[in-house]
Fold:
Amino acid sequence: MSSVAVALEPVQMYAAEFDSFEKTLDPAEPEWLRRARKAAIERFQQIGFPTLKHGEWKYTNLTPVLKVSFKPAILGRPDGVVRERLEPYTFGVLKASLLVFVNGRYAPKLSYLRPLPEGVRAMNMAEALREDARAVEPHLARHARYDTNPFTALNTAFLQDGAFIEVPRGVVIEEPIHLLYASTSKDVPLLAYPRNLIVLGARSEATVIETYAGWAPDVYLTNAVTEVVAGPGSVLAHYKMQRESESAYHFGAMAVAQDRDTNVACHSISLGAGLARSYVDTIFREDGGSLLLNGLSMTSGTQQADNYTRIDHSAQACTSMELYKGILNDKSRGVFNGNIIVRHGAQKTVARQTNKNLLLSREAFVDSTPGLEILADDVKCTHSSTIGQLDENAIFYLRTRGIDEEAARNILTYAFVGDVMNHVKVAPIKIKLNQLILSRLPKGAALGETL
Amino acid sequence: MLEIKNLHVKIGDKVILKGINLSIKPGEVHAIMGPNGSGKTTLAQVLAGRVTFEVTQGKALFEGKDLLTMKPEDRAREGIFMAFQYPVEIPGVSNAYFLKAALNAIRKYRNQDEIDAMDFMALVQEKMKLLGLDETFMKRGLNEGFSGGEKKKNEIFQMAVLEPKFCVLDETDSGLDIDALRLVSEGINAMRSPARSMLVVTHYQRLLEYVIPDVVHVLVDGKIVKSGDADLARNLEKHGYGWILEEAPKPQPAVR
Structure:
């Protein structure tokens, strides 16, 4: 607390930061992007950082984050991030193009693109803005709302790099594209603003994985935003694997706009970071779409994982299926806040929202707030939320069959995530996820051998 | 095989078993009958290792080893199996995974190698046939959405696969239609052997028409008040428990 910079209020600090950042920007940067940055930072100054009094931030204490004076990661050096260190964050035999970003900046030497169908763009955002800003312009900063979310506003103001994926009409990409964001910070805490844009043409199909990786005890902040525009009839499977350093902070927002007859699945796996907050904001803007939000958080120690989701049914005959599960150990905390809005005239909507939480310790705490706002009359909507412990009867039952208590607890914990796992269709991702879940259970590896 | 001596058990402040004496030799099938609330299920659960019950006096020896200090999983590994009155549903754990985990835990305890996948399938299929279970059964979640009858069949199926030395059957006949009762009884009878003993806990005599016990005990208010042969069960079915209650209910040692 001796640093001079901390004397400034956090909001002023970021505003001052923006003034100097703006001067460093490429003079050739398109005008529309400049305007977006300006609008975002101005909006940020108006709304500021929320306190616990703001409804949506009631359970997310930002004080520890705001106390840290982060330096822009783009200035930091990619200390010691080599291929071997990234290997645990990839998916074994999975054939996938890999775009690596170190401290928010594209690392071409660590990346490799496998052959992609004609016309597909999978590149870094900085390059896209330099070389082909017109492809980005119709979409960037038009879906992730920065008017209410200060972190999205900051990301929009400071964005520099990330991934740009565009799949032309009718093109199916068989292999996933893996975006891997690695962060390190040795001496000063760093702050990165990955910004991704995924644009799917009509009837196109893609699988995109985002992995956020880091290593304890590194302290840094990731403020990531991903925008998805799904053209008519397109299919997207999106996986987010949040595996940040357990001393890091992760704020991630995802905005999805779905056109007619689209099929989008967003899987969100949250395992890392000291404090992680994920915000998934989707809208059906045309009829006949379907959406799966499939989430799993596993926390221990003093970790906190918050999940906010918002599904906007603005069109008819759309189906949303939301399943979020949390497993909380030790003194960790979690928040689920799900909001489904079914607008006037959004008839034949089907919306199912389920949030289930398993507390493995008496000191773990979770707050679950499911929400449905229905303004149409011909709809099928349900929501449910549970918080509970492992069933002692079930543990006893397994033990009477010769299974020891620890294994019984592991089996039941693993069983708890069974339906989340069933939604994961890509086998190497499923295998990896299995390993990650088991490795977080006491002696879980032994359980894995018999699976 | 099993020796129970002067067993007293309470739950909270409520005394449930008030001095049970029971001696079961290898190959014998004993039945415990009694009205609701007499303590039958408590006895079964105490033998399986449920900790919600507190043993205040007495002991239980299994093959000479002190059963009551053993963890439930160790009792199972030593060869005790309880078929539950209300088997637990565990979605997300397949019957196949569960049974293999159980079998291997028991084998490990006995210093045996893990069972080979092919051998396991062969064993399981043989036992499934015995109980009329279909192919999809092993892939389903453990007891998940099973009917009462299916759950009871699953208990006996597990028993057949795990091949325990001593089986405790807690109200296994309840909730079974006549066909299921016949299948379950055949499954139990197929497991009777000179080396294996059973304790059949039941309110009704129904199951005992198929699984003929060697000894029948009547449990009333936490004590065994009468012991006899299979005819005792038939008498109880015909006349109810009233006539026994009217007899001087002085505790008797188990009939040998």
In short: The first helix of chain B runs from residue 40 to 48. Chain B has a mean pLDDT of 91. Residues 94 and 232 of chain B are 41 Å apart (CA to CA).
